[in-house]
Each structure stands twice: as structure tokens, then as C-alpha cells.
Specification:
single chain, mainly beta, 5 helices, rod-shaped
Length: about 650
Amino acid sequence: MMKSFGTGLSGLQTNQLFIELIGNNLANVNTVGYRADRASFTDIFSQTVRNGSAPTGSVGGINSMQVGGGTSVGSIAKIFSQGNLQNTGRTFDLGISGDGFFRLSDGAQTYYSRAGAFGLDANETLVDLSTGLNVLGVSGSPITIDSDEVIPGQATENLELAGNLPGKVTGPTTEIAEATSPFTTGTGASLAGVDPAPLGFDGDIQFEIDGTTFTVTLNSADNLTATVANLNSAANTAGIGGTPFVETGGGITVASPTLGTDSSITVTDIDAGAAAALGFTSGDNAEGTEDPADDTTELNSLLTSNGLYEAGDVIEYTGVDADGTEITGSYTVAGATDTLGQLIDAINTDFPGSTIALDADGNLVMTSDTKGDVALSLSINDQDGDGFGGESTWPGFEVTTEGLGPDTVTTSIEIFDENGQGHTVTLDFERSDTNVWSLSASIPAEDGSVLSGTVTDITFADDGTFQSVGGDGTIQFQFNDIGGPQTLTLDFGTSGTFDGLTQFGDSETAFVKSQDGFPPGELVSVFVDADGTVQGAFSNGRVSEIDQISTATFSNPGGLERAGNNLFTRSANSGEPNSGIPGEGGRGVIRSGVLEVSNVDTSQEFVNLIIAQRGFQVNSRVITTTDTILQELIGIVR
């Protein structure tokens, strides 16, 4: 009878322990990195009432009879399921996604934890904020971050080029300036009478000379000389200057005072027989001729001549030569037979960088002797007040073909010397042939000097792919205050591909894609990678590894022993720690800016609490029932 008290008591004690375990789980529902506990009960056998027996030939076997002695806690297991990762935004709030523990140390003992609320102490050592324990790196040493760390600069050695050079060829071209009107020579219209003296006729005759019409009354009493005078008087009255009518071999010739195609003569009878009396036929007409001038054309034969040149006349010319030099010169006429070619020869002598010549149409053409961007100009004029009669209407000049330099593309990049000092390098690409370019590099004079700045024969295929480069494709500088020269290797791309510099179309986008130098930099921020690497971001844009946080796994993490403050220590049954880089060897990866919350399942714990309460209640009933039976037994004695 007394045994049932012990059985009920064991149930009370076991369920009380269960309630304490549940209470601890619920108390740590908000504890960072906490791992819930789970209890398992076992029964207690203390007495065998009858042993079992095996069957025989005549009777069957019987089972043994045993009375249990109650219950006890067989084990308390830790649940290592993944807890949720909650964002915090702090760089050194770290959570592990997967298996493993952070390694912490006080210098004497190593602890393990899932709680990654870390920060820097006064010595800039990464520590657990709750305990001050040092966070260990993969080297096994505490992690220290020097906020004053500076990384030195690195000299540029390689430049990688990309972008496009234009495939369309636009230069170089030769600049050409042409006269706005051609030089021409020609004859005037003329008609010659075929009969002798026009005596013995009275009547009117009409002439049209160069578009001007006038009428002449012939008098039979006039002789040949008087008739010519009469004709010229009528012409002069109509506005035609000079003496268009002259005596020729006993007859009369009429000639236009102008030359060229604007010159014309027409004879028309007003009174029948008037034209015949002068040796003409009514309706007779004549026109002048006009042809391009050439080098042998006399100045006085030019249709633009307004007065005959004679010895001593001066023709002036000014302009700009191909090299930009302003030219002023003059030509002094030697005589009435001077030619246009002599004037042109004089101009050519004073413009050594250009060639001035007449084309087949009589146009005076000024051509730069070199290709490139120039500003040719020419102006010809008669000198004022030279006291002579020569004068012409000289044409103006205008540029008909702009001179362009070779196709060029310019880009620049900042590079760094061995002291980390920056220098601007300008790269000028210049087309030397259809698919061939050269490159010239320059730096500001105050930075140093260029020792070797030209790369030639940068060649492309017709499809625009880079092919090859002449020489070793390097340029070299000597920077001030630097001991030796600095050589840069240029990478134009892979031959036959479009992965570097290209040439097609008309776009100009060539640029330096990358260079491997950088200036000194100060630490400005840190961050933690998934593999635990603590990276430093520096003011020069570089990122450098500072240290690496390690984690550890165990073959039996349930064998770890709690040490308080979210810490665990290894035990004889946990196995040795497998320490190393997060993300390798079964170790989970690290997430920065998060904390792993408790993995306690609140709903499950409340259900367990009800179960534990019921277990406690029923075992207390066993005790009270046994007590009642004992009271009844005592009453029998009375």
C-alpha cells in the first residue's frame, strides 16, 4: 500500500520538472539565439511479482507480472532548429543561416553561441555585447578592426580600353577656295559691208548694238567719211560710246564696243535698200564669243577688264596661306601684253603653302598644299591712284571644300604613380589609314614628361573587330619626384572580337574602361560577407579584407552544456568542434544586420503546459486515493 505513495510522488516530481522546463522555454521566448529544451519521461520498474514461464507440451506459457515504481525524466534534449532572422540594420548584428555556432573566448576557455549581438569595445576588438567575450576569427585569434587603418596607393600598370572609333572616314581633306566667277576672254560682234561707198541713197536704216536700238538717216550727198561720222553720231546719241563704225577698204565695218556673249549687232531696213547701200543685208546680225581664259590670256583681253593695263599698273592681292600666315603682295604690270598666267605666278610665289591655278572653265582655284584644318582666303584688287588706266572687275573668293584634319578621338583617364598621386593622361587617337589608327599619350607639363607616348598600327578588320597593335602596346612616363619611369600596358581587346576597342559606324565612344592603380585610402566603413569575411571599405573606393569570423559545428550539438548568457561549452558527449570558414564543411552562412530570435514554439509550449498540469493532477489523485484507503484500513482496527 505504501508503494503507491512513492509512485504518485515520482509522477508529481517529474511533471513538476516538466513545468519548470516549459517555464524556462517561455521565459526565453525573446532571448536572442536561445534553443528550446524538450523533456522525455521514462518509467521505473522496481518489483517483479511473478516471473514468466515458457509453454510445455501440455500447458501454455505465462507472462511475467511486474509492478512499476513510477516515472522519472529520462533526458532533456536541446532543440537546434533554425530560429527566424530578424533585421536590425546593425553591421555587427550577425545571424547564422544553417548549422554552427559563433566562437567566443575569454582567453582561457572557448564558448559557443548562436546569439550574434556583437560590437567593438574600446580597444576596437569585436566582442559579444552581453559578456564582453572576444569573437574569434578563423586564425583562432580575436578580431580587431583599426578604424584609423590606411591602405597605400598603387601605381597604375595596366589600362583596358573599350568603346568605338568611327569607321566612317571624314578626314584628312584639302581645303579649296575658288573664285566666285570665272575668268573669260572673247570677241565682240562685228559686221563688214561688202560694197564700196554708199553714195546716191536717201533713207533710214536701223541698227541694234548690244541691245540699244537707234535709227540713222542716210544722205546721198554724203561721201564715205561723212556717212561714217553720221552713223557714229547717231550711235553716240543713243548712248553707245566710241566709234563703232569705221571705214575699211572703201567700205564700212560696224563693231560692238563690248566683248563676249553680251555683244550683238542687228541691221534692219526702215527704207528698202538702206542696208544694201551700206553693203549690208537687212536682217544681218552678229554675236560676240566668250571662252574660258587660260594662262596665256592677256590681262587686257579679259572680259572683266574695264580699262587697258599698261606698264606700271599695280595689281594687289591679300589673303591667308595654308599655314595661317597673312599674306600681302602685288604684281606690277610690265606692259600691255602681260598675261593672266604671269599674275598667277606672282601670287603663287607669295603663297608658298598653296597652289593657285586656272581650271578648264577659267575658274581661279586656290588649293592648300597640305591636308588639314586651314583658313585659305584670297582677294585681288587694282591699286588705287597708281596713275595708270588698267582696271578690272576682280571676282571674290569663297571656300568650296573645307579642309579637315585627320579623324581624331580624344579621351582621358586619371592614373596613379607609385606614391598614389593622381595624374591625368590624355589619349589622342588619330586615323592613319582606313582601318589603322595611332595613339598619342600626353600629361600636363607640370606633372612630368612623356618618355614614350606613341602606339602605332592599331589595326581593325572591315567588320570593326580589333586585330593587332604595333610594338608592345606600352607608353611610358617620368613623373616628377618619382625615382624611375612608369610603364603602362594598354589592352585594346582580344584579336578578332568585340570585347575591347572597336571601329564601325560614325560614333566616337572610345574610353579607358579600367585601370589598376589607386590612391591611398582611409577606412570609412566595414561590412561582413556571408563567409564571415570582415571587409573594409576605404575612401579610395577599394575594399580590403580585415579578418574573417569563424564558426564551429559539433557531431552532437545536443551534448553541449549551457553556460548562461546564451553560451554553450563542449562536453564529453558533444564531440570536438569542427571550426572553420562559414559556408564550408556543413557550417551555415552568416547574415549581417540580423539577429536570430529564440526558436521556442509558444503554442507548443502552452499545449505542453496543459499536459504537464494534467499529469501533475492525476498523480496527486493517486496520493490522495492511497491516503483515503489507508484511513479506511486504520478504521477497521477500531
